[in-house]
Amino acid sequence: MRPSPARLLNILVPVKRCVDYAMKIRVNPQQTGVDTNVKHSMNPFDEIAVEEAVRIRERLGDKVKSIKAVTIGPSKSAETLRTALAIGADAAIHVEIPDSAPSPEPLGVAKAIRAVIERQKEQGGVDLVIMGKQAIDDDAGQTGQILAGLMDWSQATFASKIVVDAEKKEANVTREIDGGLEELKCRLPLVVTTDLRLNEPRYATLPSIMKAKKKPIEKLTPADLGVDLTPRIETIKVTEPPKRVGGTKVANVDELVAKLKEAGVVPT
Amino acid sequence: MAQNPMRHRVLALYKELHRLGRDYPDPSYDFNGRMRKMFEKNRNLTDPEQIEKAYNLGQYIKNETLALYSLRKYRHLKRMYGDSSRSSTDDPPS
């Protein structure tokens, strides 16, 4: 009989509720931020992360003990967790903040995730954190890296391919970088941030959404975790980019050259 | 009764299509209205072969719609976050 692996993998997938990708963004009248009275959904890169966790389990079978989704957000963020559960996560953790509270910053989010990981110690800890490379609302792209730094774990960002070896507690990650692709061999525990080409997320079918309603969501507050999410950055003003001034059509090349000279772009 | 399992499948298909139809990107295209009309048109079918054919057409439309949604999202994300390495100050590729 084969000996069972020394430890089974626990995967944590932090997800974020953002303004839906297809929505037109408008600045709110107070010029303090974006109009959030629109449709929200899970950050597309986080959908890719949840999908990847589910695929890792499909490949490794029962070497993956659990896939947990976590979010830090207002009460409505629970819907995002339900989506993660419908795609295939087993359980979820909701770190709930008041609806009126400002959006948490990457440092605060990373600290909260760290606290959640600490709490998971009794249940076997966390071996792999997979999250989106950036959120489409703030485009910060920092949370994964900060988390890896806080936890002193390896990190592989902008992943376009992940191959996990549960026995060796290693992962081979292919990263998308400016020059092309880079392959890293990382020791677990590991933080991975997902890039667009990692996979194509599945659409949650109605039966899996129904099943997801029965999966547990643990509710916590930042106080429970001992984390302070007060923002350290003050947003002074948010405005739309200046409206583009209309261009003019020219009749021929000579007119074009004359106009360029007028504009001082071409030496007379 | 032999029709019961089919009825269950058809109802599940209808619910799934209805849910998908809510996210249809073009608001002027009444997806759910048209879908309902198509189901109602076939409500009195009795020949199991015809029923199966209509059901398969429904499945096909469901898969096409899912593909539409995924591609639309992928294309949008690729446009926004695709060639992130190239900035306007970079030298043009030689």
UniProtKB/TrEMBL annotation, chain A:
Entry-linked Pfam families: ETF
Any single GO BP term: amino acid catabolic process
GO cellular component: mitochondrial matrix
CDD domains xrefs: ETF_beta
Domain Electron transfer flavoprotein alpha/beta-subunit N-terminal: 32-229
Cofactor(s) required for function per UniProt: FAD; AMP
Localization per Swiss-Prot or TrEMBL: Mitochondrion matrix
UniProt key word Aminoacyl-tRNA synthetase: no
InterPro entries: ET-Flavoprotein_bsu_CS (IPR000049), ETF_a/b_N (IPR014730), ETF_b (IPR012255), ETF_beta_N (IPR033948), Rossmann-like_a/b/a_fold (IPR014729)
Matches recorded under Gene3D superfamilies: HUPs (3.40.50.620)
UniProt cofactor note: Binds 1 FAD per dimer. Binds 1 AMP per subunit.
Keywords: Electron transport, Mitochondrion, Transport
Keyword Transport recorded: yes
GO molecular function, one term: electron transfer activity
Domain of life: Eukaryota
Function text: The electron transfer flavoprotein serves as a specific electron acceptor for several dehydrogenases, including five acyl-CoA dehydrogenases, glutaryl-CoA and sarcosine dehydrogenase. It transfers the electrons to the main mitochondrial respiratory chain via ETF-ubiquinone oxidoreductase (ETF dehydrogenase).
Subunit structure: Heterodimer of an alpha and a beta subunit.
Family under the similarity heading: Belongs to the ETF beta-subunit/FixA family.
Official protein name in the record: Probable electron transfer flavoprotein subunit beta
Organism from which the protein derives: Schizopora paradoxa
Higher taxonomy: Eukaryota, Fungi, Dikarya, Basidiomycota, Agaricomycotina
TrEMBL record, chain B:
GO biological process: negative regulation of oxidative phosphorylation; respiratory electron transport chain
Domain named Complex 1 LYR protein: residues: 9-59
Any GO CC annotation of this UniProt entry: mitochondrion
InterPro entries membership: Complex1_LYR_dom (IPR008011), Complex1_LYR_ETFRF1_LYRM5 (IPR045296), ETFRF1 (IPR052000)
The family this protein is said to belong to: Belongs to the complex I LYR family.
Protein name: Complex 1 LYR protein domain-containing protein
